[in-house]
Amino acid sequence: MKIYNDFDFSKISYIRIGHVGKLFVIENIDDLLQVNDLKGKKVLGNCSKILFSKKNYRKNFYKLSGEFLKIEKLNNETVLVGAGVKFSTLMNFMIKENFTGFEELVGIPGTVGGMIKMNAGAFGKNISNNLITLETLDGKKDKSEICFSYRNTDIESVITFAKFSFEKSTKSKIMKKIEKFIKLRKRNQPYKAKTLGSTFKNPSPDQPAWKLIDNVGLRGFCVNDICVSTKHSNFIINRGKGNGKDFLELVSMIKKKVYDEKKIKLELEVEIL
Ligand SMILES: Cc1cc2nc3c(=O)[nH]c(=O)nc-3n(C[C@H](O)[C@H](O)[C@H](O)COP(=O)(O)OP(=O)(O)OC[C@H]3O[C@@H](n4cnc5c(N)ncnc54)[C@H](O)[C@@H]3O)c2cc1C
Predict the structure, then answer these.
(1) SS3 161
(2) Of 38, 41, 85, 88, whose Cβ has the fewest other Cβ atoms within 10 Å?
(3) What is the pTM of this model?
(4) Considering the chain, what is the average pLDDT of its residues?
(5) Cα–Cα dist 22/54, whole Å
(6) Residues with beta carbon inside 6 Å of ligand 1?
(7) How far apart are the first and last CA of the chain?
């Protein structure tokens, strides 16, 4: 296990906001069991849905590395994936092995563990669709034992591995689908920006959060370097020197204006720490 006492969390935060503190990098199950005994521990994936809003934490943050970065093809339709694996790495593996099933999710910058915990999805597809079983620190779980809801699950333990089932296709068909979904993402989202993706959950399919934020005139609105994206009003971006305080201020302004004008309470999708 590696322990960094003065780790700069802004380096791993997708929106590039973070404190300096202690980070444990977990290499194997023994490390994980040791960290699990600590008080106030919190597992991090790729930090693409988490905002480090404070300057100091008592929490013991840790990341999965080492054996949790493994991808193993079990047979022609089943793959075992470590929870620390970045989704882009899994996609590259799938392309190499001609596995189809996750093309819609391409471009989501999470780890497999973080994406399962958040039940990440896009274009009508959720990561849970292809899941068979999960391994967690509390033991093995069948998919049917987990409650998956809109960008949420009832998983309380650390996910260590996931088993997925896929179908076989051809490289050219897979690449064609990937290109289609990347094109859609680039058209609708601030691709590669410093952001945490959708800030709020959509209150309903006909009242998406971006539309409500747009309708109250906040597209492009900024609190210092933290701005509502001009490309997608539910994305908040860091123009450079943004911090947690400005992010929270912008979030409460959006919530207040949407409530005052539309009588709708927006719920955060981003996790504030
Ligand atoms: C540009 C951009 C585009 C995005 N597009 C989408 C999209 O289309 N669809 C979508 O659903 N999301 C999207 N997101 C949001 C984000 O990528 C997802 O929510 C993703 O699931 C977060 O994964 P992560 O590894 O970064 O998790 P983190 O942000 O690190 O953590 C999120 C939560 O998961 C928990 N967690 C992490 N790893 C584990 C583990 N091993 N076991 C248990 N819990 C764990 C953390 O403790 C935390 O509570 C986007 C984000 C960005 C920045």
Answers:
(1) strand
(2) 38
(3) 0.96
(4) 97
(5) 14
(6) 14, 42-50, 64, 83, 108-111, 113-115, 117-118, 120-122, 151, 158-159, 195-197, 271
(7) 24
Q: By the 8 A CB rule, do 14 and 46 touch?
A: yes
State in Å: Cα 163 to ligand 1 middle: 18
Q: Which atom of ligand 1 is nearest to the CA of 83?
A: 41
Residue 186 sits at the vertex; the CA angle it makes with 15 and 208, to the nearest 5 degrees, is: 75
Which atom of ligand 1 sits closest to the CA of residue 155?
43
Q: How far apart are CA 43 and CA 115, in angstroms?
A: 13
Task: Determine contact, residues 89/96, Cβ cutoff 8 Å.
Answer: no
Question: Which of 48, 85, 134, 195 has most ligand 1 atoms within 8 Å of CB, for mutation?
Answer: 48
Q: 195, exposed or middle or buried, with CB in 10 Å at 0-12, 13-18, 19+?
A: buried
Owner of token pair 């996790």? 271
Structure tokens at 157: 């333990």
Question: What integer is the mean pLDDT of 170-199?
Answer: 96
Q: Check if the beta carbon of residue 99 is closer than 8 Å to that of residue 166.
A: yes
Q: Which residues are catalytic?
A: 151, 198, 269
Answer for the pair 74, 163: CB distance below 8 angstroms, yes or no. yes
Coil, helix or strand for 129?
A: helix
Phi first, then psi, for residue 22 (nearest 5°) are: -90, 135
Domains and CATH numbers, the chain: 2-66 (3.30.43.10), 70-187 (3.30.465.10), 190-272 (3.90.78.10)
Of ligand 1's listed atoms, the one at least distance from the Cα of 136 is 42
Two structure tokens written together for 202? 């959509």
pLDDT-based confidence at residue 191 (cuts at 50, 70, 90): confident
Would you state the pLDDT for residue 192?
85
Residue 37, pLDDT > 90, answer yes
